[in-house]
Amino acid sequence: MKQSHNPLVLGSSPSGPTIELAAENLLILQREYNGRMTQPAEPGSPAHLHDVTDELKRLRARLDGEIATRHGVEKRLAELQTAYARFVPPQLLELLGKESILDVDRGNQAEKKMTILFSDIRGFASLSERMSPQQCFDFINAYLSFMEPVVLAHGGFIDKYIGDSVMALFPARGDDALHAALGMLAELERFNARREAGLAGLPEARPDQPIRIGIGLNSGLLMLGVIGGSKRMEVTVISDAVNLASRVETLTKTWQTPILITQHTLNSIRDPSDFSIRFIDRVRVRGKHLAQSIYEVFDADPAPLKAAKLASLDTFEDALAHYHFRRLEEAQRLFGECLEHNPGDTPAAIYWQRCRHANHDQAAAFESDSLAVWHPEYLLDFAGLDEMHRLIFDHIVALAEALQTGATAQAEQSIIRLVELTSEHFDTEERLMEAHGYPPSPRAEHQQQHLKFSAFLAALRTEIAAGRTSPLRLAFRCQFLLLDWFISHISITDRHLERFLSARLAT
Predict the structure, then answer these.
(1) Domain range spanning residue 116?
(2) Is residue 1 part of a domain?
């Protein structure tokens, strides 16, 4: 950031202005002294030396007073800057391209791909009813004092507090947000231990009543901007991605798991194998044609539970495939097998109950009852890209249908053609990035996603050719996981590229 003498700008140094002022004042005082010495004593005489010494002392005292006043003003301005930063995060100003809160005005805005983190304390309403107002605020502030440093340490910042809830933003990759979520759970254990021991400045808690939280992550394009009237303004975030992050956080209650992430966030993680992740469900979101896939991150589970979930990943995915394709009896059997080896697997238990009730509910709706169809919301309105996206979409659906019906030969031909189409399309996009000077950071991430998708297709092609994986499970991966990845890529990463290209071509 550019250095500035404006004391409201972060990073401004008081030393330069202070020295300049001191020098200027010294010259002024010296002129005043010379003007008053109309009848100076004889140079070198004791009287002359006495006069000079007294005048220098007076000048020094006045100068010290000026410097002290200046330091006091600068200290007060620094305190004001710190106070402003508590209400308007410096990271928000930086994203808006502003050096100081004085530069912010209505209409300032920026668009950026970010990951949103929502967290919420479980059962806080009933917990707060047993507290006095002072105890309630002491509790919230103590809890947040444990959570905030974790967010900051992983490159995020707090956008807002909503009661006991936290909304944080992470400008870099989804990895930062996920590491922060896991760090928050670790800090929660420390908070609970201190609260139980009465060391958190709070009433002592019972060991069987620890605080639990749910965390939801979603990634997407966010519009950050300044809204309000002339007397009251604030920086806010506007995006469907925020609503989905909040919705995913509430679903942690349904699935009784601490962390859930969306397909969009999974796509933005550099290497998902660094974490323990499994598909959980698909949820309908208001205003969206295609349901959204959500995933459980279970790295923070107790070691035995985590190990058991990892050991049953294949069985769990087979069970999910049978469930979503309405093979409910087999799905129930497979979920039961997961529970035999891991009775603490709550999502498996929830699915087992779903299978049991759905068997008796013929009106139950399943997304797999109809194949996915192309929808206008997937259009970017950019010639060439939309046509290729539609073609790839149709081939993914055809591949899923061939696998679901057991048409192995057709599936093998479909995957070969799909690999060719995606390779051609990705080359086209990357040439456009090169030709029009797409910025290095989003370009590198875009290319990384292309590599990940190509690797997924290559692995799928190998599995189809080997014939060792259940065709139904492969169909599940195509219809839900592969297609979701592709739609997510279009709606966020490709849309960002399209807006950049359209702006360049319009100039």
Answers:
(1) 94-300
(2) no
Distance CA 248, CA 178 (A): 14
Cβ(445)–Cβ(264) below 8 Å: no
pLDDT tens per residue, range 161-211: 888 899 999 998 899 999 999 999 999 999 988 887 776 556 555 555 788
DSSP 40: P
What residues contact 455, with CB distance under 8 A and at least 6 apart? none
The radius of gyration of the chain from alpha carbons, rounded to an integer in Å, stands at 31
Asked if 192 and 271 sit in the same domain, the reply is yes
Beta strands 277-283; 292-297: pairing state: antiparallel
H helix intervals, 405-506 = 408-436, 440-466, 471-476, 483-488, 495-506
Contact yes or no for 117/170 (Cβ under 8 A)? yes
Q: Is 293 helix (H, G, I), strand (E, B) or coil?
A: strand
The answer as to whether 10 is a domain residue is no
In tens, the pLDDT along 205-233 reads 555 578 899 999 999 988 777 777 777 76
**Any domain includes 9:** no
Q: Kindly state whether residues 200 and 165 are assigned to the same domain.
A: yes
> Does residue 464 sit within a domain?
yes
Q: What is the pTM of this model?
A: 0.78
Spatial separation of the C-alpha atoms in residues 189 and 195, rounded to whole Å: 10
